[in-house]
Amino acid sequence: MNLTPQQQSVLLALTTEWQTPAQIADQLQVAPENLSDVNQSLKELLHEGLAQVNPVVFGLYRLTALGTHKKAEVCENQ
Fold first, then answer.
1. Does the N-terminal or the C-terminal CB of the chain have fewer CB atoms within 10 Å?
2. 3-state DSSP call for residue 29?
3. How many structural domains comprise the chain?
4. Boundaries of domain holding 51
5. Is there a contact between 30 and 77 (Cβ–Cβ < 8 Å)?
């Protein structure tokens, strides 16, 4: 899967700990115009299996094992 620059930024900001989109946005090198950009990237990463949503607490996201692997690939290519 080829990630857009925005998706790569969000992926690199994600960790294995649960985070809100606002926390993720705060970590981005280039601040997005608004949280909807982060939310859209999160939806796309969820669809690809790179991130997961907390099933108990609404609005929390973290990396999956596949996402951790992809994050390492992105870091190597930068």
1. C
2. coil
3. 1
4. 5-77
5. no
